[in-house]
Amino acid sequence: MSTYRTPRRRTRLVLAAAITVTAALTGPVAVSRAATDRPAPGAAGLGDPMFPLDGNGGYTVRHYTLDFDWQAPRTPFAASTTVKATATQALSRFDLDFAGNELRSVTVNGRAAQTRRDGDELVVTPASPIPKGSAFTVKVGYTADPTQVRHRDDAIEDYGWIPTPDGTVLYPQPNGAKMIFPSNDHPSRRAPVTFRVTTPADRTAVANGRLVDRTERSDGRVRWTYDSEQPIATQLVQLAIGKFTLIDSKGPGGLPLRDVVPDALVAPTKQYRDLTPEHLTWLQEKLGPYPFNRYGVLVGDTDLGVALETQTLSLVPKADLLGTKVDAERNLVHELTHQWLGDSVGIATWSDLWVSEGHARFYERWYSEEHGGDSFEAAMKTAYENHDQWRHDYGAPAEPTEPNLFKRMRYDGSALVLYALREQVGAETFARIERAWVTQYRGKTASTADYIRLASKVAGHDLTGFLRPWLYGSKTPPMPGHPDWVVNPVVTG
User: Fold this and answer.
1) Kind of enzyme, top EC level (predicted)?
2) Which end of the chain has fewer CB within 10 Å, C or N?
3) How far is it, in rounded angstroms, from Cα 365 to Cα 415?
4) Are 360 and 412 in contact (CB under 8 A)?
């Protein structure tokens, strides 16, 4: 996500919680076989320090299928989601993250299940327990409400279903996917998605990945089927419906490009959308091959203040493409960088968001400097001057608090950590660290500890003592190579 258009401490207890979460995500504690075979409820959440009830325990999702019978803007419609999963424990019941839609039916393996709503949790008790290791299928029928939206007071602003004049787009970050479909809604939990969406004949549906089928039905409606092709985190799911023009082209090496543009915005946005091949070439020189099968820009006909790196189809608000070239390219490069860093290499917990947003801001500013924008070094010096204040107000880069998760520290403040690392190890070693990171963790999730460990391995010496103060300390360390840089005093009250 880019915050460029709308430039709007953690305690040791929270750090301990993060360590607990990491342990929970990496594997169970050894217990007796009899205990693991006894059916028990799956955990209602993964215990993430930011959002403890996001995600669910006891199973792994293998595939989602979304069936939406979309009718008209801001109009509820019939929907169902099929979740194919595997039990990682013997389950007496389990949870799905699901918020606000009218529930109609729930079955597990074709049999009606008992359900209970508990806030944003849908608690499902199957007709019979699910043995550990078993595959099972959950089908949830509901009425979807495309006006559902929530608000945050950081850079995210509104998220969930985002209406447009003739349809909708999705903004599920950070945890708004549960307003759209029942899911295991945490960035560490990824699965392939099939989208089957029926629309009126004068509307087009688009989603992550590849268009598999378009069928005109006898009633005049059209059914669109998309395959995400690769597993996808719920916060990166995109489904847009509207009066769109689909523009296909080729990127470097023949990479399929698909822009999705409201009809009236095709000509006004063309100049900057046509820069995508150049952006891809530049980023591939820095980070290696693009990690997915296709890419494109979805132009949002909305008043959204921020873009979003929805996988293979970045959502970019129209205002970002109707201003100056420098501003447009900063946002376009930011979201494209996320395809490597944030989408392909996912985050293990929300405390690791700095890895995703810091990298996107780092390469965005680097590219901008080389293409007519402001000085990268000057931007980093400004960030350095404000870093103690941001630590005080928003938490250190890898120690956010939930209300401040998407504040300035996770962007320029986290890019500054990467800038400091490059100054410390040198440009050549830094480039090797970055290439190793996107290669080793391609298609996986990774943590802050993983980044420190890999950077140390590539550099040939332990960087823990250098990186941890930058990422967790209450005070900003000296900037390597810039002894004249000074941090401004913190203003309180």
Assistant:
1) hydrolase
2) C
3) 9
4) no
Tokens 């959204």 sit at which residue? 304
Q: How wide is the angle at C-alpha 225 spanned by C-alphas 221 and 230, nearest 5°?
A: 160
Q: Please report the pLDDT score of residue 4 as a whole number.
A: 64
Cβ proximity of 387 and 397 under 8 Å: no
Question: Could you tell me which of 94, 119, 105 has the C-alpha nearest to residue 175?
Answer: 119
Residue of 30, 93, 92, 21 whose CA lies nearest to 52: 21
SS3 387: helix
Residue positions counted in the chain: 493
Q: Using alpha carbons, select from 211, 343, 345, 324 the residue that is nearest to residue 271.
A: 324
Tens-digit pLDDT profile for residues 232-285: 999 999 999 999 999 999 999 999 999 999 999 999 999 999 999 999 999 999
Whole-prediction pTM: 0.93
E strands of 99-221, at which residues? Answer: 102-108, 111-112, 114-118, 121-125, 135-144, 149-151, 158-164, 167-171, 190-191, 193-199, 204-207, 210-216
Average of per-residue pLDDT values in the chain? 94
* Torsion 421-424-426-427 (CA) sign: positive
Q: Is 109 exposed, middle or buried, given 0-12, 13-18 or 19+ CB atoms closer than 10 A?
A: middle
CA angle 233, 237, 243 (to 5 degrees): 170
Which CATH number is associated with domain 54-242?
A: 2.60.40.1730
Sorted by where each begins, the domain ranges of the chain are 54-242
Q: Which two tokens stand for residue 405?
A: 């998760």
Q: Using an 8 Å Cβ cutoff, are 397 and 407 in contact?
A: no
pLDDT category at 305 given cuts 50, 70, 90 is confident
Q: 35 pLDDT exceeds 70?
A: no
